[in-house]
Specification:
Blueprint: H1 2-18, E1 23-27, E2 32-35, H2 37-43, H3 47-50, H4 62-75, E3 77-86, E4 92-103, E5 109-118, H5 120-190, H6 196-220, H7 222-227, E6 235-238, H8 239-248, H9 251-256, E7 260-265, E8 272-275, H10 277-293, E9 299-309, E10 313-322, H11 329-332, H12 346-350, H13 356-364, E11 370-376, E12 380-391, E13 413-417, H14 421-434, E14 437-441, H15 444-453, E15 458-462, H16 470-479, E16 487-491, H17 496-505, E17 509-512, H18 517-531, H19 554-559, H20 564-591, H21 594-610, H22 615-630, H23 637-665
Parallel strand pairs: 7-9, 13-14, 13-15, 15-16, 16-17
Antiparallel strand pairs: 1-2, 1-5, 3-4, 4-5, 6-8, 8-12, 9-10, 10-12, 11-12
Helix pairs in contact: 5-6, 5-14, 6-8, 6-10, 8-10, 10-13, 15-16, 20-21, 20-23, 21-22, 22-23
């Protein structure tokens, strides 16, 4: 029997020692009566040292341990209660406290058996998981913030692109508006009786204006220049007269510098060739301009030679030779780069940006041509380039020949929607020459009102206008009014964005400013014949005249061909538009609204020359516009604004008298 009990005791002891978790027997007084080896290890005490000691001394929170111990006695058992055991050297071990009472044969409680399961590793893992979760949430938060920043940067970039597009559109409009008038009225004058010399000079002005417009297009449409996407025309033109017209513009400057201009033109070159005459003008303009700029004495030679030809095309070499300052060998490989000049002092001495030769190269090479330079310091330079042109049996269109008007269609009712009076006058002059009946609206809102009460065969619609622009007006006409009247956009802003938008809102076609009257006439007739084939009638014309002092109407009289109705209409427009502009100018100045002041004065300026108001007042208006834009020299504004108010008010008084006189004498 003793052997069996001993065996059972050894078996129980082996089970107790097999546990890797501390196991402790505690009597009713809280004293340790027995323990396993794991308990000794976790406390750093020997079995002897542990026996008889207070169980609660080995926990960091003794009161909690005491309460748990008491709970075991009261409930009979507890499980998974968290406590922390302390090693004698200070090391702490997290445990889960599990306990149960043990009794004698009579059922009396003798003490409790405690098992403290070591959960240090699990707790470490749980802590790491929590930290990982926190870091993950933090990383997610950072990623979200980065996403928001990226989206914000994208929106900023998109806004910058839109701002750039708007800037280019506005700048193009501002530059092309006066160029439109210069080229348009040059064409009008070329149709009148002129001497041969006058025709030569006016043709040179027009050719230069055409070249400048193309240059403006290339520089302002930065995306097109950067991408190298220049478009080249294929138009029949007379090479000899085209080159001669281009060189006319340099005659005065060459004479001023006491230089000689030598022209060498190969008579074997076919009279009419197919190519891009405007691009050719740009190339020659830049190269001859450079030659004149850098030559102080001697001569400039422009030669045009036929190098080779076959049944389909010719190869022509153009050479511009000067006796100027020359270019050093080390600089020649860089002169075709943007903003590069031969020496650092070149810009200071001779002016210019160094962009001309870069543009020349961009114009020649995409056409399959080549450009070369040969130069010696203090002896001069020769820039030569070769281009291919197609042969043709077609006749070249002459810029000065009078259009053949289709007399079957000479009474079209045309609504011109344009806010610049100068452009209105030009369009009215052109449409009168066509035999059409123009009506004017200075913005889209007025155009819509006119359409409610009048019928028109076609609308010419400017894009940038106050109150309601061309896009908004067209969309309203198409979607709200359900009208299919043909609409041609008049745009100075020939950008891909604008042209796509023209189509999207329902415009039938577009004309780039400055307006080519042959193209305008052709497109107008084509659209009307297509959409209103029954509009075939005819109508006559009529004439008269006037002139005065403060507001000299000689210019207006010439431009309107002394037509009293047209003169009255132009004067009436001035009288309608100017008083509100004076009010807006004064109000915006009083309130310090510089943007409104800039806009009000901007709209006054074109009418000064039309009504013959002295150019000095126009210059004052431009200064007011400049000061309002830059908000500088504001102390000078009061006097200038008062001057403009006085001049424009006086002009209105005089023009009212002129209007009544013309009406009486009709």
């Amino acid at each position: 029997m003793k052997a069996i009990l001993k065996q059972d005791s050894q078996y129980a002891r082996s089970l107790i020692e097999a546990s890797r978790d501390p196991l402790v027997a505690i009597n009713a007084h809280g004293k340790i009566t027995d323990m396993n080896e794991a308990t000794a290890n976790i406390t750093g005490m020997t079995r002897k040292e542990l026996t008889g000691t207070d169980f609660f001394d080995y926990f960091t929170e003794q009161q909690n341990a005491r309460e748990v111990y008491q709970e075991v006695f009261s409930k009979g058992s507890v499980s998974d209660l968290p406590l922390t055991l302390r090693h004698k050297n200070g090391k702490l071990t997290d445990v889960l406290f599990n306990g149960s009472v043990y009794k004698d044969d009579g059922g009396n409680v003798l003490g409790v058996v405690i098992v403290a399961r070591d959960v240090t590793e699990q707790k470490r893992i749980a802590t790491e998981l929590r930290e990982a979760k926190v870091f993950a949430e933090l990383a997610t938060s950072i990623a979200e913030e980065a996403k928001h920043k990226a989206e914000s940067a994208t929106r900023t970039a998109e806004s910058a692109v839109k701002a750039k597009q708007q800037f280019l559109s506005n700048m193009s409009h501002e530059i092309r508006t006066p160029m439109n008038a210069i080229i348009g009225f040059t064409k009008v004058v070329l149709k009148t009786e002129l001497t041969e010399k006058q025709k030569e000079y006016l043709t040179a002005i027009k050719v230069s204006g055409d070249a400048l417009i193309v240059l403006i297009n290339d520089i302002l449409d930065l995306a097109k220049v950067d991408a190298g996407k220049m478009v080249f025309e294929h138009t029949p033109f007379k090479m000899a007269s085209s080159v001669a017209a281009m060189l006319h513009m340099f005659e005065t400057k060459i004479q001023e510098k006491n230089l000689e201009l030598v022209k060498e033109y190969d008579a074997n070159i076919p009279e009419v060739l197919v190519g891009d005459p405007v691009r050719l003008h740009q190339i020659i303009l830049n190269l001859v301009s450079n030659a004149v700029k850098f030559t102080s004495k001697g001569k400039i030679t422009v030669s045009v030679k036929l190098l080779q030809q076959n049944d389909e095309q010719v190869t022509i070499e153009f050479a511009i030779t000067d006796t100027g300052i020359g270019i050093s060998e080390s600089k020649m490989e860089h002169i075709f780069e943007n903003f590069q000049q031969a020496t650092s002092g070149t810009s200071r001495l001779y002016g210019g940006t160094g962009l001309g030769l870069a543009i020349v190269k961009q114009l020649i090479e995409p056409q399959g041509g080549t450009i070369n330079v040969a130069s010696k310091i203090d002896e001069g330079s020769t820039f030569s380039f070769r281009l291919n042109f197609l042969k043709t049996h077609e006749k070249a269109e002459s810029d000065v020949e009078v259009m053949a008007i289709d007399n079957e269609i000479c009474n079209l009712k045309v609504l011109v929607v344009e806010d610049i009076p100068l452009n209105q006058l030009l369009m009215k002059t052109l449409l009168d020459d066509f035999g059409f009946q123009p009506d004017m609206a200075c913005n889209g809102k007025i155009a819509v009102e006119k359409l409610r009460v009048n019928s028109y065969d076609i609308i010419l619609m400017d894009l940038q206008m106050p109150e309601m622009n061309g896009f908004e007006a067209t969309e309203y006409i198409r979607t709200i009014m359900k009208s299919q009247v043909p609409i041609i956009a008049l745009t100075a802003d020939v950008t891909t964005v604008d042209l796509a938008k023209c189509k999207a809102v329902g415009m039938n076609d577009y004309i780039a400013k400055p307006v080519d009257e042959r193209l305008l006439y052709t497109k107008m007739i084509g659209l009307v014949k297509q959409m209103k084939p029954d509009r075939i009638q005819s109508q006559p014309h009529k004439v008269s005249s006037t002139d005065d002092r403060y507001t000299n109407l000689a210019y207006l009289n010439t431009r309107t061909k002394s037509n009293p109705d047209l003169m009255m209409q132009m004067i009436g427009m001035y009288l309608d538009q100017t008083p509100p502009l004076i009010t807006a100018m004064k109000k915006s100045f009083r309130e310090g609204n510089w943007d409104m002041l800039h806009k009000a004065v901007h709209k006054m300026i074109p009418s000064f020359s039309i009504m013959g108001i002295d150019v000095k007042f126009e210059n004052i208006a431009r200064k007011v516009q400049e000061y309002a834009y830059s908000q500088s020299d504001i102390e000078n504004l009061p006097g200038m604004v008062l001057q403009l108010e006085t001049v424009c008010s006086q002009a209105c008084s005089e023009l009212k008298m002129e209007y009544n006189a013309i009406q009486t004498n009709k």
